[in-house]
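Shipment paperwork, digital attachment
Item: protein structure file
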Amino acid sequence: MRRIPLRGHPARLGLLASTAIAVTAAVAVPFAQASSTTRTMATSQAGPASQAGPASQAGPASQAGPAVQAAGPMQSRAATRAMRGHRGFFRSRCAYSHTANDDPIMFPGQPGVAMEHDFFGNTSTNAGSTTASLLAAGTTSCLAPADTAAYWVPALYQNGAKVTPRLVLAYYRQLGRPNGVVQPMPAGLQMIAGDEKATSAQPLQVASWGCGVDVTTDKPVVPPASTPPAACPSGHHLVLAINFPDCWDGHTLTGAMQTNVAYSVRGRCPAGYPVAIPALHLGVQYPISTGTGIELSTGPGQLGSVFTAHADFVNSWTQQVLERLTASCDDTGRRCGTVGAANQPLGVRRR
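Attachment content:
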C-alpha cells in the first residue's frame, strides 16, 4: 500500500535547529512509572480545538512526582538540583479504551485516514470529535470521572502482531516553576508531542523507552533510551514516555500547526508563550517485557521505526476539576498522586 502524506508542515522545518538547542539546555524530564507524528522533532508542540499560533522551541524540564524519575544520562547536576524543588503534580490513571485509524487533530472529520492509534481517556474519541462532543459524551476509561480528556499514541506492534497497551499514567506537573506561576490548561486546548516523521532518535526529554521505575527507589529500572530495551527485569513492562510542551501562546487552541505551545527552558517560558501550563507527561505501559521486534504505526496499513513515537491530547476535562487540581497541586508544590473516583487525589504529600 502506498504511504499517504502524514501531518507534515513547512512551519516545523524552521523550528528544528532552535529546538535542538533549547532541548539540550532544558532541564531533564521524568520517565513515568506505569502501569506521537508529524509532531515537531525534539520540540514537539501541540494544540487542539481552535486556531494555530507562534512557533515553538525548547524541551521539557524538571520532574514530576513519586512515580516519575529523571531522564537518564542527559541530566546535569544543575538539573538534578532543580528537580528537588517545585515538584507539585497530580496524575490521572487511564485504561486503554480503543484503537482506530482516526486523528481528530490532524485529520478532523476524516475517519480511517490517519495512522492506527491507541486511545485512552474519553471513550467516544474518533475522527469527528470536538471538545463539545467529548464533553457531551462524558465517558472515560480514567479512574477520575472528571478526566474525559482524549489521549492517543500510535499503535504498537511486536514481530507483526498488535500489542494492546494496558494503561497510561498522565502526569500534570509543576516542572521547575515557582509556586503561583502555573495556570490551568484552557478548555479545548489541543497538543501534539513528538515527531511522527523522525528518522533518528528524538531527544530523551521528548520521547523515550524504558521499563518503568523501581517503586522502592523511585529510579528507572533501566536508563531511558531512544529505542526499546532488549528486556525488562522480572515484574516490569515496556513503557513509552512522552513529554508535552508546557508553555502556551495564550490564544491558540488548535494544535494541528504545532505552534500553539512550546517547551520551557530551565523553568522559563520562551518569548511568545507567556502562559505556563502543567507539563503533561504520558507513560504508556504495554503488557510485554521485551522491546525486540517493536514497530509503530506510520500510516494506514503501514508500520515503521520506533523513532516516530508521539502523542496527542485534547483537553476535555471537567474544567472546574482541572482548575482545582492545578491550583492545589501544580501551583503549590504538593505531590498529590493519583486522582481517584471522587475526583480527589488519593494521597497528598508535601515536597
